[in-house]
Amino acid sequence: MRVVQLSPHSLLFPHAESALREPNGLLAVGGDLSPARLMSAYRCGIFPWFNPGEMILWWSPDPRAVLFPADLHISRSMRRFLRHCPFSFTLNHAFKQVVDACAEARSDGTWIGPQIARAYHRLHQEGIAHSIEVWLGGELVGGMYGVAQGRLFCGESMFSRSTNASKAAMVVFCHHFTGHGGQLLDCQVLNDHTASLGATEIPRRAFLAALREMQQQTLAEGCWQKQVLSLPPTLFTPAASGPRP
Fold this sequence. Notes:
Helices cover 31% and strands 24% of the residues. By secondary structure, it is α+β, with helices and mostly antiparallel strands. It folds into two domains: 4-61, Alpha-Beta Plaits, CATH 3.30.70; 65-233, 3-Layer(aba) Sandwich (Aminopeptidase), CATH 3.40.630.70.
């Protein structure tokens, strides 16, 4: 196995299964971040991840971190918080601001440099990348963004400027996404935050098979229209709240 140098004259990627084991998932270098190349990558289960100012790196790790919306973990304390939730939620109202906030939110540095931000903004303008916003008193305090692939959503990054804001964004998004036929969220690489929300790891081969199937399936009309979102009503029923401690 070797890392492939992408041709500037072709949008083709090597097969994801040919990625390196160490570093896990590194597949190719070079190319650009044009909408056409990015979509070619996502269709193959590949995503860009590199430090600003460095060569573009393309990845497809094994195993792959995913979240089945039905497995979304909402703790008892989070349920209590959401029953008195101070936030409001929107879809595709402030994509650029969400991406910028995701870049600023990382204390250990960020891979979301100006090149990445511009690239995903172009995808958003083409109706392929989407954002979920969390607001508190008119201020953007949390959110996430990613790329739609049929009934699969590739989550790219999330941020929180207020306690529980990013978790609330995930709860609202999963409710909205599954309500329109969505089936799976790609989390790329497992971390403590996504694991706490219920994300798990599956073999890359299984992820690629699911991707191929879900890409061919459409969501209900209006899923990605600019709109106001709401918390799932089931959070406020006695059955959802669970037994008292």
